[in-house]
Amino acid sequence: MHKNILIIGATSAIAQATIRLYAEQNANLYLLGRNLEQLETIAADAKIRGANQAVFSALDVTEYETHESVLNEVFEKFITLDTILIAHGTLPDQAACEQSVAVTLQELNTNALSTISLLTLLANRLQTQQSGCIAVISSVAGDRGRQSNYVYGAAKGMVSIFLQGLRNRLMPYHVHVLDIKPGFVDTPMTAEFKKGPLWAQPEQIAKSIINAIEKRKNTLYTPVFWAGIMFIIRHVPEVIFKRLKL
Ligand SMILES: NC(=O)c1ccc[n+]([C@@H]2O[C@H](COP(=O)([O-])OP(=O)(O)OC[C@H]3O[C@@H](n4cnc5c(N)ncnc54)[C@H](OP(=O)(O)O)[C@@H]3O)[C@@H](O)[C@H]2O)c1
Q1: Residue 190: which domain range?
Q2: How far is the CA of 89 from the centre of ligand 1 (A)?
Q3: pTM tops 0.90, yes or no
């Protein structure tokens, strides 16, 4: 049986690495993103790698009014979905957010509210089909607010709490909800950052995502050492944490 997989934000480097692995499993892929030219290339590559089907269409996730019709088209094509991966995101300029309500709200829109809008529609579909996995890339940044990126962290934290509730709601319907929390990943989003030993490649993250989906994990810290780092970060008393330059 070929799995039916929907990838939202399919041009993301982590999504592309995941698409390549699903293509090798001969999956049926539905790719959504805002860059049609790039989606066409990704879909063609997936077909060469073994995808049974690789279709794509346009979705700018901040255009809420299109969410329902675009998802309707997905379900017309595939009827049921085995896995949904939501991967889009932007890394806000924290200093710019501090100076502008509009920039802050735009970042919260892209990184949290758009995902919540899509999840609201997708959750009802999967509840009805009583199967499938909803996997969403949030971030370790959502575990605790830090001065250097708390707008991004707040958005990802909102997504993680939403996923917790969704998991609880969809449990009786056999729908698996996975919260993916990567640490530092070498992608276009982080192109300007100096890389070090804590950095991972998208291919490594993709493998861990597919593994976590197969094992029906609830939360994935990836690479796994981030589970330990974030355990410590979450447990530093606030009276100390507020004084740290993080
Ligand atoms: N890289 C890291 O260190 C890291 C760490 C933790 C979590 N994450 C999360 O991992 C996910 C994937 O990011 P990545 O690292 O793979 O970075 P990436 O390659 O820069 O991917 C980000 C993707 O989001 C898409 N996107 C942004 N705004 C969109 C919109 N309005 N509509 C549709 N698509 C939109 C971009 O599309 P375009 O190609 O059209 O711009 C791009 O494909 C994101 O959720 C990110 O927050 C990344």
Answers
A1: 4-241
A2: 4
A3: yes
Q: Given the CA of residue 182, which atom of ligand 1 is nearest to it?
A: 6
Torsion angle, alpha carbons of 201, 207, 210, 214, to 10 = -140
pLDDT in tens, 14-53: 999 999 999 999 999 999 999 999 999 999 999 999 999 9
CA of 175 to the centre of ligand 1 (A): 25
> Alpha helices of 109-201 — where are they, by DSSP H?
114-129, 150-170
Q: Radius of gyration of the chain from Cα atoms?
A: 18
Establish whether residue 142 lines the binding site of ligand 1, counting it when its CB lies within 6 angstroms of any ligand atom.
no
Q: From the CB of 90, is ligand 1 less than 6 Å away?
A: yes
Residue 150 inside a domain? The answer is yes
What is the number of structural domains in the chain?
1
Q: Return the structure tokens found at 89.
A: 């995101």
Return the H-helix or E-strand segment holding 135.
Answer: strand 133-137
| CATH code (residue 150) | 3.40.50.720
Ligand 1 centre and the CA of 91: distance in Å?
A: 8
182 belongs to a structural domain? yes
Tell me the best of 7, 8, 39, 90 to mutate to test the pocket of ligand 1, counting ligand atoms within 8 Å of each CB and taking the most: 90
Q: Are 11 and 39 in contact (CB under 8 A)?
A: yes
Residue 246 domain flag: no
DSSP assignment letter at 242: T
Going from the Cα of 211 to the center of ligand 1, the distance in angstroms, rounded, reads: 21
